[in-house]
Specification:
Blueprint lengths: L1 H10 L9 E2 L4 E8 L2 E8 L5 E11 L4 E9 L4 E6 L3
Length: 86
Amino acid sequence: RENTKAFLEYTGVINPYKNLIELSEECELCVREKDGIRYMIVLNYAHEPKEITLKKEMIDIDTDKKVKGNIALKAYETKVYQYSII
């Protein structure tokens, strides 16, 4: 199991978005694209706030503001971020 996990981490399969976002295990990440625009949907399943880190500037769909860095998600909160890969 350890060898398989190490291989999957090395190839980037376990965390393919690690250069864009860091999140705890209680959070889920969904990535979608529509009309050439990419979105990251972050869901906090924990009953307490969790911190995520956006490593690249993105647009918070709720506020239409650019955000980057550490962000606190409330318990059971969902956030949507628009980003580009360039």
